[in-house]
Amino acid sequence: MSATRSATPIPTLLAVVAAGALATACVGARAETPAGGEAPYVEARTPEEAGAYLVRAGSCDDCHTPGWPESGGTLPDGERLMGSPVGFRGPWGTTYPANLRLSAAHLGAKEWVAMIRARNDRPPMPWFSLHAMSDRDLAAIHAYLRKLGAKGRPAEPAIGPDQEPTTPYILFAPVPPKAASAGNTQAKAPASADANPAIVGGHVAMAMP
Ligand code: HEC
After folding, report:
1. 107 in ligand 1 pocket by Cβ < 6 Å?
2. Ligand 1 center to residue 64 CA distance, Å?
């Protein structure tokens, strides 16, 4: 009798575990397809308000508004999101954070979302973070940028790794620690192209601006 009693709960337990695994799989599937109907989105009184929240929480100003991090995020709206004349230079070339107010002004909401979904290009723009947002949230960002209004000039076009920038730029490349330049070969080792795949084409040796 005792054998029968102890055997009964096992299939039950397995069924519970299986059901749990299935539920987890479903949740995972939803999270992996943020563009779908069930994608999460930010709720606010208006799309513009949701967009303002997403832009601020998403740190878009860090790159698209010069001086934003230094100001502690306190620059007035009139000075925000007009792109940066200072490039980011790395193995990908030199890229310039775009004037998002002009980009949004030139595109309708649907075109804006399609443009973002179609792009996956150069660093340090975190395209993967934008791609993780639902269409509704991307449209909310568009609505907010439209509310800020078209202002400023378009950013410089990006240039390739072999081209010399004509603007100031921020170098995005690992620099060996001081110990390495003083001849400590152990410290130097991680900065070699073999040891660090982030260094491509010897960009670590590039002179600072
Ligand atoms: C770490 C810096 C950085 C951050 C943070 C950042 N961007 Fe960018 N962004 C860039 C750079 C650089 C480019 C230009 C990329 C290129 O030329 O390939 C760019 C380009 C873009 C473009 C293309 C616009 C066009 O018209 O070409 C969009 C849209 C964009 N960013 C939106 C955003 C949004 C929305 C956020 C916040 C969620 C954000 N970015 C955060 C650096 C950044």
Report:
1. no
2. 7
Tokens describing residue 86: 């200072």
Check if 63 has its Cβ closer than 6 Å to any atom of ligand 1. Answer: yes
Q: Please check whether residues 136 and 84 belong to one and the same domain.
A: yes
DSSP 157-172: PPB-TTSPPSS-EEE-
pTM of this prediction exceeds 0.85: no
List the domain range (segments joined by +) for residue 192: 173-202
80 lines ligand 1 (CB under 6 A): no
Does 64 sit in the ligand 1 pocket, CB within 6 Å?
yes
| pLDDT digit string, tens, across residues 43-87 | 999 999 999 999 999 999 999 999 999 999 999 999 999 999 999
Q: Domain ends where: 109, 133, 148?
A: 148
Question: How many domains is the chain partitioned into structurally?
Answer: 2
Concatenate the DSSP letters of all residues of 90-121 into one string. Answer: ETTEEE----HHHHHHHS-HHHHHHHHHH---
Express each pLDDT in 160-192 by its tens digit. 999 999 999 999 988 889 865 665 555 444 444
